[in-house]
Known about the structure:
Order of helices and strands: EHEEHHEH
Strand content: 25-35%
Number of helices: 4
Strand order of the largest sheet: 2-3-1-4
Radius of gyration: 14 Å
CATH topology: Alpha-Beta Plaits
Number of strands: 4
CATH architecture: 2-Layer Sandwich
CATH class: Alpha Beta
Amino acid sequence: MMIRIAELEIEPIHLDEYTAILKEEAEASVRIEPGVISIYPMFQKENPTQIRILEIYADEAAYKAHLQTAHFKHYKTATADMVKSLNLLDMNAIDRQMMPEIFKKLNQ
């Protein structure tokens, strides 16, 4: 499994447009790509221009395939001038066995 947290700061003037494009990209990634487990965008309550995205892929090959999709390429090009900063943090799960249980609860 490959886990990443993307930390972004968005130009305030572009926030609504950025979030609309991000929502489309995240939805398409999870729906279409079998190796994408999660593209879960969120923002800080006190500062909505601070976006965090929890990305979980089945493996590195799924991540690399994701980068080649039309919806991801559209997201990157359409939002390039909206992103003030981007930091990618590669993460490791502490308890991999628990992850399937977390997602099962969403359907209850």
